[in-house]
Amino acid sequence: MTTLPAPRTPDPMEAPAVRWGILAPGWIARLFCTALRDGTRQEIVAVGSRGFDRAKLFADDFGAPSAYGSYEGLVNDPNVDIIYVASPHSEHYAHARLALEAGKPVLVEKAFTRNAAEARDLVALAKAKNLFLMEAMWARFLPHYDVIRQAVANGMLGEVTTVFADHGQPLYPGGPERLSNPALAGGALLDLGVYPVSFADFVLGPFTSITAVGALTDLGVDSQESITVTNASGAQGVLHASMLGRSASTASVCGTVGRLDIGGPFYAPTSVRLYDRYGQLVDQHDKVQDMEHAALRYQAAEAARCLAAGQTESELFPLEATVRVMAAMDEVRAQLGVRYPGE
């Protein structure tokens, strides 16, 4: 155990250019399109919203030639190669299905859907139509995640025993209405907890047990949760999410001969430090090329590469992992007593 591996992540500027249609021009869509415009060769060619004026304003901001006052218009645009679904969690399933039914490949914002049943249905539809589908869990495609991936696979930590991951933001009360509204699949878990849960799945693989405790708001969505998971080898994950206050949002992967500490926020471009079993710093990866959401370009580049290669899913983040994460969050919600209308 001496040197952390260099990331193998391709330069997003080298990804083939595909033509993007943006479904729901909100905050995250603006960050995504800014990352595409500034850090890739991707083309933003169309925007769809529930109202034409909003779509046109967004399209003009990013130089997209087409704007639609309906999502149906967007997904049926013959000049669009792939749809990016950026609507609230509660709408991901319907909007992704609309795009797939129209024959369009889809990149769906995280959390992928409200629940695993919706996720499985989208995966089955994409497979039946031989269409590309991927969850926009941007962290999975970042360079420092590939450092972690290689370090774990190469046995630099010995046998992995424990994963820690935490994500807390001051988003309730007083934050976006969608986070407090059960009808919009609100709560900390799908918005914030998805990052620690997905990170634990990334390192540990499938969970064999899940235990959760948490607190609910007066409207019945989760304000915070603490989750423990195990995998088949007995390794454990200790995970936390909260929308009540800002936490360090760091992560660690502990093994029998070493430890990785991932700086906060662990799901954005950050440092990775390697320690030996005695807690002595051995090496560190500090090369960060992108500031925060500029790194959304990596997931777009992965989708573009897959699309150009004729792949229907990403090898870095296969659909079975997305479904596993959704199923894990279903179990957490069941233990906390959180249920969304219409489920």
TrEMBL record:
Q: Which domain of life is it from?
A: Bacteria
Q: Which UniProt keywords apply?
A: Oxidoreductase
Note one Pfam family from the annotation: GFO_IDH_MocA
Every copy of the Gfo/Idh/MocA-like oxidoreductase N-terminal domain together lies at 19-134
Looking at the record, the residues that make up the GFO/IDH/MocA-like oxidoreductase domain are: 148-260
* Family membership noted in the UniProt record: Belongs to the Gfo/Idh/MocA family.
Its recorded name reads Dehydrogenase
- Originating organism: Kibdelosporangium banguiense
Specify the taxonomic lineage.
Bacteria, Bacillati, Actinomycetota, Actinomycetes, Pseudonocardiales
